[in-house]
Design brief:
Number of strands: 27
Bound molecules: 1-deoxynojirimycin
Strand order of the largest sheet: 11-16-15-14-12-13
CATH architecture of the domain at 380-580: 3-Layer(aba) Sandwich
CATH topology of the domain at 380-580: Rossmann fold
Oligomer: single chain
Number of helices: 22
Largest sheet: 6 strands, mixed
Shape: globular
CATH superfamily of the domain at 380-580: Glycoside hydrolase family 3 C-terminal domain
Strand content: 15-25%
Structural class: alpha/beta
Length: 762
């Protein structure tokens, strides 16, 4: 007892010393910023709110660049899309040596899924379900970016997306709000490590706030309109999770929310973000987000810039709406000096917290740049993380893993596609250093097996479509020969082989910004190629590249093995070889539903029941909520993914089926690796709130654990459930739980679960 009370005293002391030192730090910061702001002119304050793109600054010539004049005049708060210590040091020098108040600049970049060591695209990474691995990917990205001069990343992107037509679904974590929130936290932690004063942490920027992923028709930048109940329950939590994790900045989204663009939406940027959630950092617009509100139709540039500031926006990316109009708006009484001061203060606070006032060159250490970027150690981790993000859809007759012997025909436009391996948003990557599938396979087999290669087809029959899909240096080197000739060459290769690996799917830039599609199947010529390869009668493994859920009904019926590899990053080819040859047992699980066809979209696991649900086991009934031509089922459900081994789930055991108040429910299940290989399995917990004051989803993910099981091994997995897990926003937006019956479900995906019902009273 004595020991416990002594420990308690020590704990309280530590906490209060910590709290006190935080207060001292804040006081120090405030004193510093108060003094600085007293010296600032109005123009200099407005200048801090300006974030231009860097343009083409040449090393050693920053002071003569176009942007230098503005920096010297104190009209720039930060720059983005500039990298390398040499360049950043040069530009920072202009700010701290030539501008009147010597205020250092922020240097931001889209470090989205790695810096030079690239990890899988976020949608792929989210299928890893290992939060430590995801955090580690952000940690490595931060270390590399900060070693190259960057102190701020426009990541994590946490937009919930349920429409795979939308190209930017590739940049987020899929459809689920719980998984998305866990990933948001892990990413912020990885980038910031709770301490921005270190030289290897960078400030994160959660985006795109808010609802960007709910664009109508999957068309980028499009209108979103939804009830607040849906927002709070299904879309906003991942942004809030990032705020709770201490994210330093937030990016406003391009879209409108309830008829007011997010960039001018005071309810969103101030009432919810700052007042309700207590966000203390700064808000930046997206690229020309202010100017675009003219086209949205809510005013001219002066008006929309004023509206953005009044809504709570602090920094203006690229468009210079603030820089060119705020002074006039102040003179005309359209904004207040206090509003400009508040925004300026938040930018200065970020710079202070990053330690830039102490040392503006904190991220400009050439030695770090030379030794900490694209290291063997980082690449090794990226390879492991990539391999564990791949999702095995089908493996009929155990075609996989392949043997490292005989002759393997590697065919397809993605087989020798080095520039495409990193996927969308890989601005700092050196594509030539990525490992292609052909390189990965050849390195893996050495002299043990023969790898034959043929392209087999172009990406698409339409050359212009291929051009639009292979931008930013990610060419697939279109083959000018007639399609039949390219195909015949591939068939000749296929016929000499024991097994065919078909590397098909999308090009890297077929998803990402402004890359929406209406037909989300494997493109035409590639599908013809696949059909022809299957006709050879050889076993075919489809290695599928994609940045979105594709419609694969035909492929699922006809191809014996399908491994979805997303865009795995710089080590993609090696990671693919690891899985194809069984050195790594696949363990990825989908973070988003794969529909049977486009007409089913939006299709997501946590839908409502409706008043006319389909009876269990049926796929159509008249006057029920369904289609005449296809069932409501997805092709592959959320949470789905196979392994080279089998996992069997025992019965679901509950500590109690009748609970009261704040009790804790233990839900346990024994999972057995009943196959012959060691493997990893993500055990998923879902809850169905059966009766509510508002309708509730048929199930909601509430927990998961990724476990490792040796062949033959069994482990009992336990989830602790409290009323906290039952809470939701009701019709009045009150966040609480309601007494009643709940179904507790555990399984290896959202469809195949064991279920037990409990009653929980207040
Ligand atoms: C526009 C994109 O929407 C956003 O995600 C990105 O961070 C900015 N451009 C800056 O590149």
């Amino acid at each position: 007892m004595k020991l416990i009370s002594r420990l308690l005293v020590v704990f309280i002391l530590v906490v209060s010393v910590d709290a006190r030192s935080q207060t001292t730090n804040t006081t120090k910061m405030n004193i510093f910023i108060d003094a600085l702001m007293k010296k600032m002119t109005l123009e200099e304050k407005i200048g801090q709110l300006n974030l231009p793109g860097a343009g083409d600054i040449v090393t050693g010539q920053a002071s003569s660049s176009d942007i230098a004049k503005k920096i010297t005049e104190g009209k720039v708060g930060g720059l983005f899309n500039i990298k390398s210590v040499a360049k950043i040091k040069d530009v920072q020098k202009v700010a701290v040596e030539k501008s009147r108040l010597k205020i250092p600049l922020l240097f931001g970049m889209d470090v989205i899924h790695g810096y030079q060591t690239m990890f899988p695209i976020p949608l792929g990474l989210s299928c890893n379900w290992d939060m430590q691995a995801i955090e580690q990917s952000a940690r490595i990205a931060a270390t590399e970016a900060s070693a190259d001069g960057i102190c701020w990343t426009f990541s994590p992107m946490v937009d919930i997306a349920r429409d795979p037509r939308w190209g930017r679904i590739s940049e987020g974590n899929g459809e689920d709000v719980y998984l998305g929130s866990q990933i948001a936290k892990a990413m912020v932690k990885g980038y910031q490590e709770g301490d921005l004063s270190k030289n290897n942490t960078i400030m994160a920027c959660v985006k795109h706030y808010a609802l960007y992923g709910a664009a109508e028709g999957g068309r980028d930048y499009n209108t979103t309109d939804m009830s607040r109940v849906r927002m709070f329950n299904e879309y906003l939590p991942p942004y809030k999770a990032a705020v709770d994790a201490g994210v330093g900045s937030v990016m406003a989204s391009f879209n409108e929310v309830d008829g007011v663009p997010a960039t001018a939406n005071k309810w969103l940027q101030t009432d919810v973000l700052r007042k309700q959630w207590g966000f203390k950092g700064f808000v930046v617009t997206d690229y020309t987000g202010i100017n675009e509100m003219v086209a949205h139709g809510i005013g001219d540039l002066q008006m929309v810039a004023a509206r953005a500031l009044m809504a709570g926006i602090d920094m203006d990316m690229v468009g210079e709406g603030f820089l060119t109009t705020l002074k006039k708006s102040l003179q005309e009484g359209k904004v207040t000096a206090a509003q400009i001061d508040a925004a300026c203060r938040r930018i200065l606070e970020a710079k202070y917290k990053l330690g830039l006032f102490d040392d503006p060159y904190k991220y400009c250490d050439e030695k770090r740049a030379a030794t900490e970027i694209f290291t063997d150690a980082n690449r090794k981790i990226a390879r492991k993380i990539a391999a564990e993000s791949f999702v095995l859809f089908k493996n009929q007759g155990n075609v996989l893993p392949l043997k490292k012997s005989g002759t393997i025909a590697l065919i397809g436009p993605l087989a020798d596609a080095t520039e495409n391996m990193t996927g969308t948003w890989s601005v700092a990557a050196d594509f030539s250093k990525s490992v292609s599938v052909i390189r990965g396979l050849k390195e893996a087999v050495g002299n043990e097996a023969k790898i034959l290669y043929a392209k087999g087809s172009n990406l698409t029959a339409d050359a212009a479509y291929e051009e639009r899909s292979t931008m930013f240096g990610k060419s697939l080197h279109r083959d000018a020969r007639p399609a039949t000739e390219i195909l015949q060459e591939a068939l000749a290769v296929a016929n000499q082989s024991d097994v065919i690996v078909a590397a098909l799917g999308e090009a890297a830039e077929m998803t990402g910004e402004s890359s929406s599609r209406t037909d989300i199947g494997i493109p035409d010529v590639q599908k013809d190629l696949l059909k022809a390869l299957l006709k050879t009668g050889k076993p075919v493994v489809l290695v599928l590249f994609t940045g979105r859920p594709l419609t694969l009904t035909w492929e699922n019926e006809n191809v014996p093995a399908i491994l979805n590899v997303w865009f795995g990053g710089s080590e993609a080819g090696s990671a693919i070889a690891d899985v194809l040859f069984g050195d790594v047992n696949p363990s990825g699980k989908l973070s988003t539903t794969f529909p049977q066809n486009v007409g089913q979209i939006p299709l997501y696991y946590n839908h409502k029941n409706t008043g006319r649900p389909l009876p269990e086991g049926q796929w159509f009934q008249k006057f029920r909520s369904n289609y005449l031509d296809v069932s409501n089922d997805p092709l592959y459900p959320f949470g789905y993914g196979l392994s080279y081994t089998n996992f069997t789930y025992g019965d679901l055991q509950l500590s109690n089926t009748s609970l009261k108040g704040n009790q804790t429910l233990s839900a346990s299940i024994t999972v057995t690796n009943s196959g012959t290989r060691d493997g990893k399995e993500t055990v998923q917990l879902y809850i169905h709130d059966m009766v509510g004051s508002s309708t509730r989803p048929v199930k909601e993910l509430k927990g998961f654990q990724k476990i490792e099981l040796k062949a033959g091994e069994a482990k009992t997995v336990t989830f602790k459930i409290t009323p906290e897990d039952l809470k939701f926003y009701n019709y009045d937006l009150k966040y609480d739980w309601e007494a009643g019956d709940f179904e507790i479900m555990i399984g290896g995906n959202s469809r195949d679960v064991k279920t037990v019902r409990v009653n929980w009273s207040k």
